[in-house]
Specification:
alpha+beta; 121 residues; 3 helices
Length: 121
């Protein structure tokens, strides 16, 4: 089972969430007064192992530039960016290098956001 965290504001089309609605677990709302989107709707989904890659393939097509989505289990971490997702180690190691480089250069994500992906939603 994977825990998948999605900030609704990170998606081009909120209808994409209908696809994973059966996996919905919870939502919290955070005020982000300094952000372009001052209110974030942060959803947590619990996704069966056999469904995770199908869902990540949908999300990579809908996530906005400069955002990422992550999913994790007790064995691995996935990071989704525009047009690509990465399967990396839970702890930072050399498997993170390609993801960080892609995030900065292609997905336009600030380095400090993707150098420390949290294992929480």
């Amino acid at each position: 089972m994977y825990r998948l965290g999605i900030i609704e504001e990170s998606l081009e089309n909120a209808k994409t969430l209908d696809f994973i609605k059966p996996c919905f677990f919870s939502q919290r709302i955070e005020n982000m007064p300094e952000d372009v989107y001052p209110i974030w709707h942060i959803n947590e989904y619990h996704v069966p192992d056999e469904k995770i890659e199908e869902i990540l393939n949908v999300l990579k097509e809908d996530i906005k530039l400069s955002w990422y989505i992550h999913a994790f289990s007790d064995r691995q971490l996935f990071v989704v960016m525009r047009e690509k997702y990465f399967e990396i180690s839970l702890q930072r190691d050399d498997t993170w290098d390609e993801m960080i480089q892609y995030g900065i250069e292609k997905a336009k994500i600030e380095r400090h956001f993707i150098e420390n992906i949290p294992l929480e939603v």
